[in-house]
TrEMBL record:
Keywords: Cell inner membrane, Cell membrane, Membrane, Transmembrane, Transmembrane helix, Transport. PANTHER family: INNER MEMBRANE ABC TRANSPORTER PERMEASE PROTEIN YDCV. The chain crosses the membrane at residues 29-52, 81-111, 123-143, 163-187, 225-246, 271-294, 315-334, 380-404, 416-440, 452-479, 500-521, 552-572. It holds the Pfam family BPD_transp_1. It is found in: Cell inner membrane; Cell membrane. This is ABC transporter permease. The keyword ATP-binding does not apply. Belongs to the binding-protein-dependent transport system permease family. InterPro entries: MetI-like (IPR000515).
Length: 582
């Protein structure tokens, strides 16, 4: 069964290297095979029960199941679901348009024009990346909700309020603030790479600033705009926080809130209908990914930077730049800054209203409430533990997957990469539902339901495409000649990874871990189905407190979640800087 193969490398650092082989295969093959099995089991295991449930006539945990299409028939005959679909797509379209308009204008103003406070504006635009969409929704209610500070202030001044947050438009505006950083990052990156000689050539032909902007710059950034549009659109379709908080009181349901209502709030849930709706959402998300792939396939048409040095300078837009500056400044004030300021003030006050000066109702009672209730304190610790342990485990597993797919001859490398990236089309609430059914069905895994380990697994798979995307470019930047050099002195695949590649990947792995930590601390949707009364995370705890009317403690807990993310990022940057200097 087991044989020993000795490889000699005279004069090499390894000397005479001996590797054990099992069934004629080296250690690398079995590690790669184990990684394939684990990833496929977790990803497919979470998706398959949902698909299976949509095609059977009774809950999948009951005996006597029969194949049927009636779940889909009932879904399509349900007029309420068509309204849900219309609302979802209308919401996604409005969110995408609003977010992209803000992102493109901001990128042009901050990157390509000379205006004051560019650094501060850039930081404020990225502020929502540290904030959970759930927290952002809370902060907007504090300011712009029916009883919000700005709402009551405007009503006292003019007698009416020109906005209503609890509508599709209000939901889209709030969601767009959360997703503007996506569009801004892609567009600003493209702006930095554009060669200014193209603009100069247009100006020599008599084109004015507006013509240069419309005919040269905007067409050249079409690929990142398109990519950001598809990403924002797909993210909007799967969001739960804002539709649940804003749509619930006025009976506006979107895909995620529909699944939440049918699967968790309904005393007699229609499991078959729930499975069919989930599969339909999965199909829509998969189609969007395919569209994204083909839309960007011909990106070479927009190349403007070649091997030679490219000149980059600011764009002279004349008076237009001040209009752009005013637009971006107004957005930052009303979008992320003012609501976040309202969140902070609400955390330290008994009530937030323009009728009473905030300094008259200052209190630490909201924080005392958080720390006096064991369940609330536990939710903070559980979120941190899940993010720390789950972030490390996900980073390590993603590293092995990347090395298997990009730096090995494993025969199933292609399918493994496809499966590893598959969770990007699975909304968090559907993933949580899938793991809930998976843990209930697979022998020996029932004990994971309602545990921290189960939440770590779900959160890790949810963030797995992000980890893969963060690590893969770093691995691909390392030349394969290092692998070949290690092989010439007798190192196998596993030894090459441990002794050569791992040390070079450490900074990238740190960065991936920081990214995953922030994402996992903010995550909560899979925990809706997987959490228990004794194992809640910050997000589910805030949601429960909000539904119970405890808005002050919600603000305090929201602020703590933000501080955890910010402090961790600050500490991680210092650690990374120290390691880089060493």
């Amino acid at each position: 069964m087991t044989e020993t193969i000795a490889k000699s490398a005279p004069g090499g650092p390894y000397g005479s290297v001996t590797y054990r082989r099992f069934l004629g295969r080296g250690k690398g093959f079995w590690i790669q095979g184990a990684v394939f099995i684990v990833v496929v089991f977790l990803v497919v295991g979470a998706i398959f029960p949902i698909i299976y449930q949509s095609f059977i006539d009774r809950p999948l945990y009951e005996a006597g199941q029969h194949f049927t299409l009636q779940n889909y028939v009932r879904l399509f005959e349900d007029a309420g679901f068509w309204l849900v679909a219309f609302n979802s797509f209308a919401f996604a379209v409005m969110t995408t348009v609003i977010a992209l308009v803000i992102a493109v204008i901001s990128a042009i103003v901050i990157v390509r024009t000379r205006v004051p406070l560019r650094g501060l504006m850039d930081a404020c635009l990225l502020l929502p990346t540290y904030i959970s969409p759930l927290v952002l929704a809370f902060s907007w209610v504090y300011i712009y909700g029916p009883a919000g500070y700005a709402t009551l202030f405007v009503q006292s001044m003019v007698g009416a309020t020109p906005w209503n947050l609890y509508t599709l438009v209000g939901m889209a505006v709030t969601e767009s603030v959360a997703l503007v950083p996506i569009g801004y990052l892609y567009c600003s990156g493209a702006m930095h790479q554009l060669d200014s000689s193209l603009e100069s050539a247009a100006r020599t032909c008599g084109a004015g600033p507006w013509t240069v902007l419309r005919r040269v710059i905007l067409p050249m950034i079409r690929p990142p705009v398109l990519y950001a549009a598809l990403l924002i659109f797909s993210t909007s379709l799967e969001t739960l926080s804002i539709p649940l908080l804003y749509g619930g009181p006025v009976n506006i349901e979107l895909f995620a809130s529909f699944i939440y209502t049918k699967g968790l709030l309904d005393p007699h849930p229609d499991i078959g209908l729930l499975g069919a709706a989930s599969v339909l959402v999965l199909c829509v998300m998969a189609v969007l990914v395919v569209i994204q792939y083909f839309a960007l396939k011909n990106g070479k048409r927009f190349i403007s930077v070649r091997g030679k040095a490219a000149r980059r300078s600011t764009l002279n837009l004349g008076a237009i730049r001040w209009l752009g500056f005013a637009f971006v400044a107004l957005y930052l004030l009303l979008g992320p800054v003012l609501p976040m300021l309202g969140l902070v003030v609400r955390a330290f006050t008994q009530v937030l209203t323009p009728l009473i000066a905030p300094y008259k109702v200052l209190t630490l009672g909201n924080f005392l409430t958080i720390f006096s209730v064991e369940q609330y304190v536990d939710s903070i610790w559980y979120s941190v533990v899940i993010a720390l342990v789950g972030g490390v485990a996900t980073t390590l597993l993603a590293t092995l997957v990347v090395l298997t797919t990009k730096r090995s001859r494993f025969v199933l490398a292609g399918p493994l990469e496809f499966v590893a990236l598959a969770p990007q089309v699975v909304p968090g609430i559907i993933l949580g539902l899938g793991f809930f059914w998976m843990f209930a069905l697979v022998p020996g895994m029932r004990v994971l339901n309602g545990t921290l380990i189960g939440l770590m697994i779900a959160f890790g798979i949810r963030a797995f495409p992000m980890a893969f995307g963060a690590i893969a470019p770093i691995v691909m930047q390392i030349g394969t000649e290092l692998d070949a050099a290690a092989r010439t002195i007798g190192a196998d695949w596993w030894c090459t990874f441990r002794r050569v590649l791992l040390r070079m990947l450490v900074p990238g792995l740190y960065a991936s871990f920081v990214l995953l930590f922030v994402q996992m601390v903010k995550e909560f949707t899979p925990a809706i189905f997987l959490g228990s009364a004794d194992n809640q995370v910050i997000g589910t705890t805030m949601l429960q407190m909000w539904l119970n009317g405890n808005t002050g403690p919600v603000a305090a807990l929201s602020l703590m979640q933000i501080l955890i993310c910010v402090l961790f990022v600050v500490v991680a940057k210092k650690v990374l800087k120290v390691n880089a200097n060493e």
